[in-house]
Design a protein that fits this description.
Length: 208
């Protein structure tokens, strides 16, 4: 197999486009091009082509993993799943996750702490924080430490109710506010306590 052309400049994703004598194309990152010493006119046998494809796949998974982690907090399981969903080979996805972990760019314990801090800052209840940990595929072994010092959300609940309700809010409005707080992860008990603090009547069906 002969390289018929090799782009002089990379595309927006940082990859160089190669075209081979059989009409197939590949997009490779600079490191792979340099590692294999690729240039227009170079002939590659089957073994070399297989090695090039493997290296290209590994580098693609690694670079995609970096982009994913840079954009959001992810667990190792979440990162692996996203890589596979983007089309990366499962084995190469595993290798990329391990590589990221070795570089300390992905850490489930720290990611769990960051997720919980974010939920607390948004005024969510602990149930919503647990839901976020589950959705991010954080192993449960890290949940307890991350949630251990979850701040009391009474002030957040009170502020939410004040923003939604006046002193003469009708029962329907109060029910909607309560339901919204439940969706935010707060318990019925905490919401009832906040209603009493504001001297607002607890709607029928919520006073158990």
């Amino acid at each position: 197999m002969t390289i018929e052309s090799l782009a002089a400049k990379p595309d927006r994703a940082g990859r160089f486009s190669l075209r081979f004598s059989d009409g197939t194309t590949m997009r490779l990152y600079r490191q792979t091009v340099e590692d294999f010493g690729l240039y227009t006119g170079l002939e590659l046998d089957e073994e070399q082509m297989a090695a090039l494809r493997e290296a290209a796949g590994q580098m693609s998974a690694k670079m995609r993993a970096v982009r994913i982690v840079t954009a959001s907090n992810v667990s190792k399981r979440d990162l692996r799943q996203r890589l596979i969903q983007k089309g990366e080979d499962p084995g190469q996805a595993d290798a990329a996750v391990q590589w990221m972990e070795e570089l300390k760019l992905v850490d489930d314990r720290e990611t769990a702490a960051q997720i919980v801090r974010g939920c607390a800052l948004k005024g969510y209840g602990i149930a919503r924080a647990k839901q976020a940990l589950y959705e991010k595929r954080i192993p449960k072994e890290y949940w307890e430490d991350a949630l251990e010092d979850y701040p009391d959300q009474t002030e957040s609940i009170v502020a939410f109710l004040r923003s939604r309700l006046g002193t003469d809010a009708d029962e329907r409005s109060r029910k909607r506010a309560i339901d919204a707080l439940i969706r935010r992860g707060h318990s019925y008990g905490d919401v009832r306590q906040a209603l009493r603090q504001l001297e607002l009547e607890i709607p029928e069906g919520y006073d158990g």
